[in-house]
């Protein structure tokens, strides 16, 4: 029963994205046509020359290794946070916030760069056609249309991008096929696959340009919450995107080398630059085809802008939902089911930055595009490298780790991506294409962003540990439970003074709870409260100086309020809860404490829910029923039944043997455990169940013999309301809190 606050959980985004639609969203971010027109000539000129196709092959192989581990993560964690969430799961919360801030800077830099680039080239193309509008007019149109599509449901953007991306891939395929038809086997010279002899500097630059051409493929995970069957859709979309992009890049660059000639490709590219592919298209398909390619270049840039806008929205949404940014950004539009406020935020950033450059009369390409492109590229490649090592951290101690898929492959990808980061840093001025010292010093801002993320994380850890603890945990039901990173316990509690009192702390359950608290370091002071003070002292002595023992009579409300007065949280392990649950909860709230328990009685559960309004009003957190069974057992049974076509019989069980506490040397068993009293109470009273769409108090259970698999028999304690038939069990919907005991032989 958390109190209402900005930290209240919000629903994940929902959608019905399929593999093809996610592939279009991802390929749009990579912008194959723009990469071939703008980046490929630079790779020929400054990079590996005729061996550029080999560089695309190497980069594609490294990214494929990365994607193997990336896909393994996406099958277990589904969240709009993408890389940010994966880093939280694999490396911890503070690195995740640092990565989130770097991603914010990188994505926003790319978004602003794309607005500037689109408006600049649109102005050039349309000005040549006699339409003389200034570039800010085209920028305003691009920002408005992007904002509109980004505000709406993702399916709208996916369909729109599907048309644009399909068109640019089609025209690239047509150009390639026609040139192969004209050139024959000479379109595929073997020299293009041989990087030997091109020089170390050229090799490094060639790999750098190849890696930058794959930007955006990591965006598949950002759409997990909005996809159909994300544990299958996201990995398949990731593999497909890399394969499609690598094939088009590799083939187009290879055929281009064949069309020009390996010996002449470097000089031709240096002379023609962005006109290289356009001139080849005009030569082999005619001027009309070249004009079509020019128009599609503009739509390709806009498609990349829209894809980048959507990626940025989902990152801002995830950071807002986690409380790293304002939680206003973590809200989902009630009708469009989109991160609408995050979209408005990104639109505002574009308006402010582009507007400032327009008012200053600055050139959008020479100032804004070249400065932001290198910054965004370096930031995203660095994040991909960190994520590769997060995959290793996530799977390191998991039983489902695989030496190849979650070990060797992500390690190889991480090493390759680290090499790419180094290459970009060393040759950053070549990537930007300018000698401006201010522009080439911009990578420092990525370091500053990471430091700002660390400061933000530490601030949350000190001032709002609950929000800090939830970082990276907002995932869908398709995700598997992710344990906190090992370092997060220490970081959460290192600067937090927290006193926890365990009621029944010397009992069979209580002393295990005390030991767990001590082992996790979740409290700086632990109070072991028990009616048997001698046993409480033994437990406290076992823990050490951070624990102390007090005598507590749970039947005395005044004594409990006094004991709870200087505590932060009360952990109630004292049963039977039908007797002690409500009085202890009331005393905890009276003392102004948060409260947790391991209640497994339905009566006290119903009574505890009546405290919801009070707990919210007073700002208290109340968590009940931790590990309760058969409530949890019934939920598992329900989940299992929902995954089957038909269910003939469904049994949930609770072993009465658990009512016997195993003795320890210092804590010998002394009489029946509270679980025995709990079981007797459930057998002799009514059970609150959920039947026929509403709550019902069913009659006491009675034993019936049942047949189990492998010739086993058991004793089923069946509720009397079903008249001795198996009708209730055939409904495939177990009654909540129904007690069933099964003895097998």
Compose a concise summary of this entry.
With about 750 residues, this protein is α/β, with parallel strands linked by helices. The chain has helices at about 20-30, 30-45, 50-75, 85-90, 95-130, 135-150, 155-185, 200-210, 230-260, 265-270, 275-285, 285-320, 340-360, 365-395, 405-425, 430, 435-440, 445-465, 465-470, 485-495, 510-520, 535-545, 555-565, 575-590, 600-610, 610-620, 630-640, 675-685, 725-730; strands at about 500-505, 525-530, 545-550, 570, 595, 620-625, 685-690, 695-700, 700-705, 715-720. The strands form 3 sheets. Strands 3-2-1-4-5-6 form a 6-stranded parallel sheet, sandwiched between helices.
What can you see in these coordinates?
The chain has 745 residues and is an alpha/beta fold. 59% of the residues lie in helices and 7% in strands. It has 29 helices and ten strands. The protein has helices spanning 19-30, 32-46, 52-74, 83-91, 93-128, 135-151, 154-183, 200-212, 230-260, 265-272, 276-285, 287-321, 340-359, 364-395, 404-426, 428-432, 437-440, 443-463, 465-469, 486-493, 510-520, 533-543, 557-564, 577-590, 602-609, 612-618, 631-642, 674-684, 727-730, and strands at residues 499-503, 525-530, 547-551, 569-572, 594-597, 622-623, 687-691, 694-698, 701-707, 713-719. The strands form three sheets. A six-stranded parallel β-sheet has the order 3-2-1-4-5-6, with helices on both faces. Helix 1 (19-30) crosses helix 12. The protein is elongated. 50% of the residues are buried. Residues 1-9, 489-495 and 717-745 have low confidence and may be disordered. Residues 715-745 are annotated as: Disordered.
């Amino acid at each position: 029963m958390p109190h209402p606050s900005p930290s209240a959980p919000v629903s994940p985004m929902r959608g019905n994205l399929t593999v093809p639609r996610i592939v279009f969203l991802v390929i749009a971010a990579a912008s194959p046509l723009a990469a071939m027109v703008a980046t490929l000539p630079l790779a020929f000129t400054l990079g590996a020359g005729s061996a550029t196709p080999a560089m695309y092959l190497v980069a594609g192989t490294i990214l494929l290794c990365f994607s193997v581990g990336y896909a393994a993560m996406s099958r277990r964690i589904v969240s709009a946070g993408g890389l940010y969430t994966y880093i939280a799961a694999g490396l911890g919360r503070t690195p995740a916030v640092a990565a989130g801030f770097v991603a914010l800077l990188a994505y926003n830099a790319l978004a602003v760069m794309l607005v500037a680039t689109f408006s600049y080239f649109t102005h050039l193309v349309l000005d040549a056609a006699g339409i003389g509008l200034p570039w800010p007019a085209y920028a305003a149109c691009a920002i408005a249309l992007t904002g509109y599509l980004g505000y709406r449901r993702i399916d709208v953007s996916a369909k729109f991008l599907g048309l644009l991306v399909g068109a640019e891939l089609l025209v690239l395929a047509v150009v390639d096929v026609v040139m192969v038809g004209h050139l024959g086997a000479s379109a595929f010279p073997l020299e293009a696959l041989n990087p030997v002899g091109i020089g170390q500097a050229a090799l490094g630059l060639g790999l750098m340009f190849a890696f930058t051409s794959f930007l955006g493929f990591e965006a598949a995970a950002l759409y997990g919450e909005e996809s159909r069957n994300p544990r299958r859709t996201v990995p398949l979309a990731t593999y497909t995107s890399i394969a499609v992009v690598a094939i088009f890049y590799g083939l187009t660059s290879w055929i281009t080398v064949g069309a020009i000639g390996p010996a002449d490709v470097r000089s031709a590219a240096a002379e023609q630059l962005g006109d290289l592919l356009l001139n080849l298209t005009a030569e082999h398909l005619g001027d009309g085809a070249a004009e079509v390619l020019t128009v599609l270049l503009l739509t390709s840039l806009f498609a990349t802008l829209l894809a980048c806008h959507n990626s940025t929205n989902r990152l801002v949404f995830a950071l807002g939902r986690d409380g790293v940014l304002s939680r206003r950004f973590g809200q989902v539009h009630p009708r469009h089911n989109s991160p609408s406020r995050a979209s408005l935020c990104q639109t505002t950033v574009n308006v402010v930055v582009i507007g400032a450059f327009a008012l200053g009369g600055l050139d959008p390409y020479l100032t804004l595009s070249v400065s932001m492109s290198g910054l965004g590229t370096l930031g995203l490649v660095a994040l991909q490298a960190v994520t590769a090592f997060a995959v290793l951290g996530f799977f390191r101690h998991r039983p489902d780790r695989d030496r190849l898929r979650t070990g060797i492959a992500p390690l190889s990808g991480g090493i390759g991506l680290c090499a790419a980061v180094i290459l970009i840093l060393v040759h950053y001025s070549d990537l930007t294409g300018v000698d401006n010292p201010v522009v080439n010093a911009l990578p420092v801002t990525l370091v500053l962003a990471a430091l700002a993320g660390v400061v933000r994380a530490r601030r949350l850890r000190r001032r709002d540990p609950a929000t800090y603890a939830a970082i990276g945990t907002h995932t869908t039901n398709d995700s598997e439970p992710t344990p906190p990173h090992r370092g997060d316990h220490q970081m959460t509690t290192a600067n937090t003074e927290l006193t926890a009192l365990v009621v029944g702390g010397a009992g069979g359950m209580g002393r295990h709870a005390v030991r767990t608290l001590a082992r996790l370091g979740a409290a700086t002071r632990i109070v072991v409260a028990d009616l048997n003070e001698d046993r409480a002292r033994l437990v406290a002595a076992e823990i050490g100086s951070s624990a102390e023992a007090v005598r507590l009579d749970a039947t005395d409300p005044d004594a409990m309020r006094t004991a709870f007065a200087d505590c932060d949280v009360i952990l109630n392990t004292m049963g039977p809860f039908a007797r002690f649950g409500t009085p202890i909860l009331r005393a905890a709230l009276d003392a102004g404490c948060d409260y947790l328990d391991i209640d497994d009685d339905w009566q006290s559960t119903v009574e505890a829910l009546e405290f919801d309004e009070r707990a919210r009003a007073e700002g208290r957190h109340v968590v009940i029923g931790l590990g309760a069974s058969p409530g949890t057992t019934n939920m598992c049974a329900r989940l299992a039944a929902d995954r089957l076509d038909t269910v003939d019989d469904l049994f949930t069980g609770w072993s009465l043997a658990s009512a016997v506490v195993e003795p320890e040397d210092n804590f010998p068993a002394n009489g029946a455990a509270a679980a025995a009293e709990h079981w007797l109470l459930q057998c002799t009273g009514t059970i609150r169940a959920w039947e026929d769409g509403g709550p019902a108090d069913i009659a006491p259970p009675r034993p019936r013999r049942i047949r189990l698999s492998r010739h086993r028999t058991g004793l089923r304690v069946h509720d009397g309301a079903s008249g001795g038939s198996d009708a209730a069990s055939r409904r495939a919907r177990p009654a909540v809190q129904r007690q069933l005991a099964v003895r097998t032989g």
